[in-house]
Amino acid sequence: MAILSTQLARVSNQLRTSVSQSAISRTQRSLLEVQNELITGKRINAPSDDPGDAAIVQQLRKTLEQRAAYLGNVKQAGSHLGEVDATLGDLTDLLQQAQDIASANVGSDVTAEQRKSAAAVVDNIYSQVLSLANKQFEGMYLFAGDRLTDPPFVSEGGGVKFVGSTNTLSNACDENSVRPFMVNGERVFGALSTRVEGTANITPSVSAATRLVDLAGVSGNGIRLGAMNLSNGGASALVDLSQADTVGDVMDAINAAGVGGITASLSARGLVLTGGGGDDITVTDVGGGTTASDLGILRAVGAGAGLPLNGADTQPKVTNFTPLAALNSGAGIDLTSGITIQNGQQSATIDFAGATTVQDMLNRINNYGTHVRAEINASGTGINLLNPTQGTNLSIAENGGTTAADLGVRSFGPASALSELNLGKGVRMADGADLTITRSDGTSFQIDVNGAITVQDVIDAINTADAGGGVTASFSTTGNGIVLTDTSGGAGTLVVAPANYSEAAKDLGLLKPSVGAVLAGDDVNPVKAGGVFSNLSTLLAALHGSDQQAITDAAAGLKANLTNLTTVRGETGARVQELESRQNRLEDENLATQSLLSNLQEVDMTEAISRFQTLQTALQASMMTTSRIMNLSLLDFLS
Amino acid sequence: MSLTRTLNIGKSALATHQAAIQATGNNIANAGNADYTRQTAQTAPSRDHQIRPGVFVGTGVNLTGIQRHIDEALEGRIRGSISDNEGAATTEQWISRVESTLNELSEDDLSTQLSTFFNSWSNLANKPQDVGYRQVVVQNGEMVASSLKDLRGQLSSLRADVDGRLTAQVDDADRLAKQIAHLNREIVLSEGGSAGQANGLRDQRDAAMKQLSQLIDVRAVEQKNGTLNVYVGSDPLVINGDSRGLTIRNETIDGVVTPVVAYKHDNGNVRLTSGQIGALTAVRQRIGGYVDKVDEISGNIIFELNKIHSAGQGIEGFAAVSATNVVTDSTVALNDDRSGVPFKATNGSFVVHVKDKTTGLVTSTLIEVDLDGLNADDTTLDDLVARMDNIGGLSAINASGLLKLSADSTGVELSFSQDSSGVLAALGVNSFYSGRDATDIALSPAIKGNPNLLAAAKNGEKGDNQTALAIAALESAKLPSLGGASLKERYQSFVNEIAIAAADAKTDAEASAVVKETLLAQREALSGVSLDEEAINLIRQQRAFQGASRLIAAVDELMQQILALV
Known about the structure:
- The structure holds two protein chains of two kinds.
- Chain A has helices spanning 13-40, 51-104, 112-133, 185-189, 247-257, 291-294, 358-366, 403-407, 455-465, 504-507, 531-545, 548-601, 605-631; strands at 136-137, 140-141, 153-156, 159-162, 170-174, 177-180, 195-197, 227-231, 236-240, 263-266, 271-274, 282-285, 309-310, 339-343, 346-350, 373-376, 383-386, 389-390, 393-398, 435-438, 444-447, 471-475, 482-486, 495-498, 518-520, 527-528.
- Chain A is α+β, with helices and mostly antiparallel strands.
- A four-stranded antiparallel sheet of chain A has the order 15-14-19-26.
- Chain B has helices at residues 3-29, 72-102, 110-126, 131-191, 199-215, 275-310, 381-389, 423-427, 445-449, 466-472, 487-527, 531-565; strands spanning 39-45, 49-52, 55-57, 61-68, 218-222, 228-232, 235-239, 242-243, 246-253, 256-263, 320-322, 348-356, 362-369, 394-399, 402-407, 412-417, 433-434, 442-443.
- In chain B, helix 3 (110-126) runs antiparallel to helix 10.
């Protein structure tokens, strides 16, 4: 409203009309605004109506939209895990049933016929468990991890092979938490419980092409990129490594910094900085960074002029791209001999001649039809071989060289503990001597394996007992097993017999005839995927064969499976519960946000209506005044 | 003392009051004209006549002039307030049009669409294998792209509207300046150098000045000879009878043809602060800024999303894949401006996977992208093509600047991962969006044709959802390219900026209207016509005229009597 001085000397006709006009149009505009507010019920219809509050409104709307997605995810996860929970319930019932059958069929009062008919029930249970394992929910296989498009458990080679993945899917449940909504099939069915973990650390050497993400770093936390300060005691330069991708990039950056004569080169597993005669090299981190320390070249105080800086071990990881020649700190592995893999009925001798990278090696193993899965271990220090097929025995042996040992994947070797042999049953020993070995010249001697911890201890014991006598024990270089060689040259044959009714000879794989002067022992340390299917098939075979010991073993295995299942079910239940409480919380939060949003955005009806009334009155007053004023003229009163 | 002299007194009174009645009549006639300045007749007694030494008698009345009731200083302030108000109103008008193109706070605004889009990625993470969910992501992605494109299109056409309006306004201002110059000449001619005579012409000139001040903030300085010199800032626009003229000169600024207001005379820029033209140039610049912001947001959505997407894998691999961004010079480093690549890749590497579809075996190859600027060995497109062509099972070519990869046989397929360099996204390989900013943002043709190529996975497994999760989190992720802000925050601050500008413009327009109205009321108090006042004046002048007539009649009678004596 224009500010009109009451002391205006004159009031012109123009002034009277324009004042009325502006008053009316202004009131009408305000009326329009209130009308709009009342019709839409919103105080803020466009952000410019109240930019401050509109910004908050936008933020709240965004929060609600985002929360809708979280709520959707939580509900989806809830129904997925609910389905898993129900499936686990069914599975528990089936396994319980199988275990009951196993317990009922141990004992002398059960006939072989009865066991055979029980086997039919177990067979049925087996196929039900398999179908549960391959259960789908909304087009996803529940236990397949991120290979959810295909059934995770496949009958193959007399066992059940797990072709799913152990990576489970997760999704965001709120801003800061991403929660898995799947259960790992391996944990439920014990699918990959057997793996030959590489015992050898085959950490490779670094090269210029090694990516920095493939270094565990000195502290094991990776290389955290940033800048570092490089000095030769006089000049110094900031070396920015934030864009570096490979070790080569780091060396390039150091060389390009041109501090004195300092240049970078590589040792087996770290960096080496070399300077000229006058360069007293120091490297420090800048601004709380850890780049230099992660790279192992942190040196705050110079060691003296002309001395090189030999960086610490950067702990390079084994990756698909690691050249085989770089493994073992550059020593490489025996590529030509290869390894022999025996998995159930499948056997293969795989050599790596011609392979250049770790990927080539893994692909060669994975592609060999042995169903063995080779992968790099989680910490990137070696490789693991997994037997995904339940019910088959896996053994990995040398093929005359050292390949398996180099990779640390030999399933049975001199270092194997006696207690682990025979699928964990160990070596059963008697008091006193356990074996009687008769040489071809007829003399015999006894061995007591009590006190022996490893296979090597047994070999040593044999070699000590018959020192100079002609029998030498060693570990096989092709295949797995203890080898006895007899050079005594008699007319008889080399025989190993149990002493004191000890089972040790059998358990060590030595209870077999010799061929010529050599007795090649059996591989008594195969690895076998335990798990539900393995135990069920053991039970099935045992019932058919009426093998009470095997039935007992299977019952024990199933009991362990059930215990494991109870744990998994408990965890699943807890997660379903967590999701439910999360859902409730999200809904509560939504309610609170909605009400805040209404407060900000929605119009206060009472206030708006009374404003509407006031404006209406004002408009009426303006119109009435205008019509009166406009009609007032002196001319009307002049005759 | 003679009767004739008395008769003359009557005559002078008759003539004077007749003129006064004329002036009043003129006032009444112009009562409805807002540009009119009230005029009153100025009278003064005629020079006294000495009838006897020391005794003087009056000789009647003289019309000394017709006075325009005007306060030039007030007029100047009014013109300033008109410029301010018109400028503010123009700004309000255009900014609110900008605001309405955004359509924010509605149910289908862009920020809701962005949420819907990113939420559909989150939903895809629940069922990464589901083609239906993939289709939803594709559709929402297309919707965001077309909304961004539309928004930019609407802003550009608003800018074009402003340009059109600006041209018309500048033509108008030029015409007014010419008219003022012309009136200056007329006024000098009719007043003959003495100020304050040609009231009608002056009213016309004042009206033209008022119109001009609606367009440009002008300052007027009246000269002694009656001409009005008009200045814009300190630059003269009209000097005496000459106008320097106004025109539009098109300049290309940052690749955009921008109209600049200039003097016809010497093509120099006109420094504008308010008025409609001043507001239009400012609004134009602002809309340009908004267009840039939309481009920035779009460019970031394209590149940041593609960076994640390009390193992910779909349910299927590619039999062949083509980049969407052309490299104009394949011999310079890929992050060099001369390469013509719209986005900057950094030093890093990526992995190409060649999968044998029968055995399922994957052969991965690490491709180094050296862009550290050291050793003069930075990666060019040619290098990249050579390195990738070297991979067994695939061929790479440079097809007129586009990187094209194809599998050597139908038995293998290609995929990509672990791109730390962003080069795949920069070139538009395995990307979600194609284009560089809001002008050409579109869904990548490959994905549009086959949603199975949509990358939800990161580790190569069909059912993996890690890429989908990462993209879902992108909307709220702090981006270094946006100075640590997230896409969501940047778009919100863009909307807020416009909201605040619109609200400010509204307040400005209201405030300046109050100032203008107040000043106009003051002008009306001085220069406006009041019919009541004029009616009173008319009666007074009528009575004076009647009195003078009576005087003449009386003198006539006296003369008759004297003549009768003869």
